[in-house]
Amino acid sequence: MQDLVVQRPEGLYCPSGDFYIDPWRPVPRAVITHAHSDHARVGHGHYLAAAPAEGVLRVRLGDIDLQTLPYGQAIGHHGVKVSLHPAGHVLGSAQVRLQYRAAGGGQTWVASGDYKVAPDATCAPFEPVRCDVFITESTFGLPIYRWRPDAELFGEINTWWVANVALGRASVLMCYSFGKAQRILSGVDAAIAPIVVHGAVHSLNTAYRAAGVDLPATLTVDEVSDPADFRRALVLCPPSAAGGPWAKRFGDFSVAFASGWMQLRGARRRGGYDKGFVLSDHADWPGLLGAVNATCASRVIVTHGSVPVLVRYLTEQGLQAEAFHTEYGDDPVEEQVQPQPPENGAATQGGA
Ligand SMILES: [Zn+2]
Ligand SMILES: [Zn+2]
């Protein structure tokens, strides 16, 4: 039988169900894995997403024709059974499971969207879903990418912040405003000093809190009543804000950047900031391999990231592995901060 998901110029397409998954061009029906702007774009006729994604999707896309589905619940569409399963990437992120019964046997496909397998208090944990064909991302699909435990990382951030407080300067931490910022908020020690957030982070925080995610108290710059707080605060903002007039109010501050790309020494050197924290919302190399393994899929299709490396590795493991070309990675914030990838590749994605 024909493949359940194929590539089209508009995006990944399910011919049997006549819908797209995270399409990059406007289409009538789109299943959206998560609200990062390279995966969730404006202009589609109808959107289907996981229920916990509703708030963040509306912050990002406004008044769209959105249907939501609780994790694990299935709906039928032209004979294709569609269900969404936690991807552990950001609030509401989902893997898309497609099941089609046909004469002579059916098949089950899972499109991962972006995912991480490490725990994250701000979203539901990644759920391995058995399938025949697994479409996996490979943003950090090189053996050099191995994340340390979160506790160590947040400990490092706390130490940097405490040291800056002692010196009377703010700790400006540049990060992706959706997902990364909330994960940092949930991980740092909010008792150290006030936390100030940029407006872009604030609007996402509001959606997270409305969805029941517990985040510490934060202030926008307008809410800071004591100017001394500007000199000891932890400040979360997108990279564009840290270099502009918005950050002038913090005076002489220390600036750091949180991203999986910080694992690359060159990225740290080029960035012009004092510190780089390796914090990613994607699976690292062992995480990717473990996730692929857990699906029990015999065929794996690799999308955005270090595609050739992972395809070669999986082929060597005896799997049928191939690539889909996708156009994720048009998020202006991430584009701006993402260094050139190492040797292999066309690494382009949002929310690293
Ligand atoms: Zn992505
Ligand atoms: Zn993403």
Structural notes for this entry:
By secondary structure, this protein is α/β, with parallel strands linked by helices. It folds into two domains: 6-145 and 281-337, 4-Layer Sandwich (Metallo-beta-lactamase, Chain A), CATH 3.60.15.10; 150-277, Rossmann fold, CATH 3.40.50. The protein is built from nine helices and 18 strands. The strands form three sheets. It has a seven-stranded mixed beta sheet with strand order 7-8-9-10-11-17-18, covered by helices on one side. It has a six-stranded mixed beta sheet with strand order 1-2-3-4-5-6, with no helix packed on it. Strand 2 (11-14) and strand 3 (19-21) form a beta hairpin. It is globular and about 70 Å long. Residues 330-350 have low confidence and may be disordered. One zinc ion binds at residues 34, 36, 39, 89, 114, 350-351.
Index terms:
Rossmann fold, binds zinc ion, six-stranded mixed beta sheet, 18 strands, disordered C terminus, Metallo-beta-lactamase, Chain A, alpha/beta, single chain, 9 helices, 352 residues, seven-stranded mixed beta sheet, 2 domains
